[in-house]
Amino acid sequence: MKSSKQLFARRRNRNRGIVRDRNTGRARLSVFRSGKHIYAQIIDDTNGATLASASSVEKDMRGSLKSGAGIPAAEAVGKLVAERALKAGVEQVVFDRGGYLYHGRVKALAEGAREGGLKF
To answer: What local confidence, expressed as pLDDT, does residue 24 receive?
Structure first.
């Protein structure tokens, strides 16, 4: 029987393969969530560079949120990463949820990024 880490890695690799196939020169919005915080990065895979990032760890985010682990924090991080991506000149991205289900905090981050102006 496979461990939960092995199953997560399998889901992540399967999702990254789909993202790679559908990616047509667009940047990738990558999500990482931990038990206490959520992080998002806009990554240009052709150059291997991070164009924009946001997380619930940042000081301005911590002051305005009750917790870095909730759905409101994920929405705020999504809006912030979208704002920073638009400043960097990125309008269209491919959403990379990693091995996480598109539910809860991951979904809230995606909806926040869409509200912020990103298209995916």
So the answer is: 81
Task: Kindly report, residue by residue over 11-42, the tens digit of the pLDDT.
Answer: 999 998 888 888 888 999 999 999 999 999 99
**E strands of 34-72, at which residues?**
38-44, 49-55
Q: How many helices (H) and strands (E) does the chain have?
A: 4, 4
State which H helix or E strand residue 82 sits in. Answer: helix 71-87
The CATH topology of domain 4-116 is Nucleotidyltransferase; domain 5 (3.30.420)
Segments making up each domain of the chain, as ranges: 4-116
Binned at pLDDT 50, 70 and 90, residue 8 comes out as very high
